[in-house]
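Morning!

This is the sequence you dropped in the shared folder:
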Amino acid sequence: MRLLLRSALGPALMLSASFGGPVVAQSAQPAHGFTVAGTGFLKDGKPHQVISAEMHYVRIPRAYWRDRLHKARAMGLNTITTYAFWNAHEPRPGVYDFSGQNDLAAFIRAAQAEGLDVILRPGPYVCAEWELGGYPAWLLKDRRLVLRSTDAAYTAAVERWLVRLGREIKPLLLRNGGPIVAIQLENEYGAFGQDKTYLEGLKASYRRAGLADGVLFTSNQASDLAKGSLPDVPSIVNFGSGGAANAVAKLEAFRPGGLRMVGEYWAGWFDKWGEDHHETDGRKEAEELRFMLKRGYSVSLYMFHGGTTFGWMNGADSHTGKDYHPDTTSYDYDAPLDEAGNPRYKYALLASVIAEVTGKPAVPPPASTVAATFPVSTTRRSASLWDNLPESVRSPRPLTFEELDQNYGYVLYRVALPAGQGGRLLLKGMHSYAKVYIDRKLVGTLDRRLDQEAVDLPPRAVPATLDILVENTGRVNYSHAIRTEQTGLTGAVTLNGTPLVDWRMFRLPMNDLSTLRLSNAPCTGPCFYEVEMKVDRPADTYLDMRGLHKGQLWLGTHNLGRFWSIGPVHTLYAPAPWMKRGTNRITFFDLTGDATGHLSTVKAPIFGKVTTTREAQ
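The structure's back. Tokens below.
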């Protein structure tokens, strides 16, 4: 969650209003401009107040992009803010993906077609409760590389990424007829460090990538403004509901004649596994939005629509690396639009405030999408993980996910144990959830959330096989902990103080389930299961996960995300565009599968205990 600025005028190019349409030169049109002038903006030479909110293209099914953007415009917004997610676009070094769900340019063109400007936040660090704050996991393969620093290996990787991103983005800058009016430099850097050389170097990389020709800005929380800003770059402030008066006072004291803008106004909050579901006071948020807009501030709400962190891409909160709090699949955020894109009561309240301040009549709230339920079969085909292992990799010591060239999923670590007495098995730096087996019998579970790294093994009368199945539950996306977020068995593995050696490792990214050997035989333990959902007409629904334990679920080939019985979110959002009429295959992997597991569908999300308190960031 973060933002940035500068200034520029450019030649006239107008973008086709069709979604994904071409850029067509219109030489007769006047030049478009967007600049910082004193405490505000000028757009085409006229005073302009940015009224924005955040949405993330990767968290919204592509078929729904236009729907969500249309609802944003209807609420009265004139701008949409989004990050660019490096790890989604460069899954392997030098291999880029800007297609389908990752087509950032198409999302930006869709925003323009709805009459919205765009503020882009390229990072490279984005936070966003997103895996490793948006950094590709492969950066951590070299343990000498230092994230968010002037380390040459790091800055070279960043430069390559920004140059490649620039190829997608430059045609969409305002000076080229696109909707991008401003670009954020870095992201809340003041909460991490205060190295101005680092920020200046990143600004130079932006310039070489063609991303610094317009308005640049930095955004930081109020207490971090001085640390995370540059003297020649406008600085804006981020904070949550209840903090408006204090935060704007600090911004005005820091830059008395500078730009008045709130880059992130947290109108909600995110959920973490094993904790409470967050709901915040929309009435208070509407009051503070009125206060900020009437004071002349430009404002961007975080979030307008949170959506879903599909697949493996949730991050984790941590300040020290030991206090590990992984985020849920749902990124509902208690935003004005809920996870399925339907307006909640906040939407109308905020729309009313925007209409009041701008003098433009409020549009009636859009109707909610009608959700449906579908029957899910109780008979299941299954496949034991033990019977579906790939070829192994051998090493004297355990290798991390990154050393195995694997970003996400699971790794099974295997080593032989001699006969002998029981003892303490220590998995130093285990990241981040592990099941420990002897001869395929479960003997312990370790959870990084609970700071667990050791389990007592029973005595063995004969030699045995030790298996450690490790899940990447989400790399930390906040604080200096990001620099040490290698996943898997990251340190020494010892039994009674003696290192275990000669390991075999089985890579389980689970990105292709087509080779699973499924059967009608029952399966317990770490198992894959397949059920069928009958759909008469595709419609949004929620899968009720309370009958399962912990694992991952796919609808067809779409990875809907993680489930975990500890909550607070007990459903997975299943969007209509990812279904087909007739029989839909659902596959799920359950770490502790058994004959009692079952799935059903419901029309609304199911949450556990609710809190109205947002913890300090």
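Headline: The first helix runs from residue 65 to 75.

More detail when I'm at my desk.
O.
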